[in-house]
């Protein structure tokens, strides 16, 4: 998911932490099971399994709406890109790739130094 006009809203610690909390809240509400996520300055990656009756579009819309309301800003660009994993053995390598985004983009030299990510394997 990409922020509106690729603005780096998530350089703001408070906004980034609120977005992280909404991802956890989506799981608590029973809408999703999050495998991992990373909030980058101008976009995020979210690996999830849908739960309940909501579609992927509805779940993403709930996330975007709630995170924007908490930030008091219109954060998100319309739409999103999705990729379905077909094999369970692809889950962990894909999660490692997702979580390594802050390293690949040079935001940090150690993943542990980046505060806006989570994974169920921790």
From TrEMBL:
Q: Which residues form the signal peptide?
A: none
Q: Which residues form a coiled coil?
A: none
| GO function terms (MF aspect) | sequence-specific DNA binding; transposase activity
Protein origin, superkingdom = Bacteria
Q: Name one GO biological process term.
A: DNA transposition
The record places domain Transposase IS200-like at 2-101
Extract the Pfam families matched here: Y1_Tnp
The entry's protein name is IS200/IS605 family transposase
């Amino acid at each position: 998911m990409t922020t509106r006009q690729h603005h780096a809203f998530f350089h703001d610690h408070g906004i980034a932490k609120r977005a992280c909390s909404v991802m956890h809240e989506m799981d608590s509400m029973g809408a999703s099971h999050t495998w991992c996520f990373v909030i980058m300055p101008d976009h995020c990656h979210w690996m999830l399994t849908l739960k309940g009756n909501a579609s992927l579009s509805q779940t993403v819309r709930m996330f975007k709406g709630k995170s924007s309301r908490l930030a008091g800003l219109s954060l998100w660009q319309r739409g999103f890109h999705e990729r379905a994993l077909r094999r369970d053995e692809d889950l962990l390598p894909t999660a490692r790739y997702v979580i390594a985004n802050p390293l690949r983009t040079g935001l940090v030299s150690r993943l542990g130094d980046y505060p806006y990510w989570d994974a169920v394997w921790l």
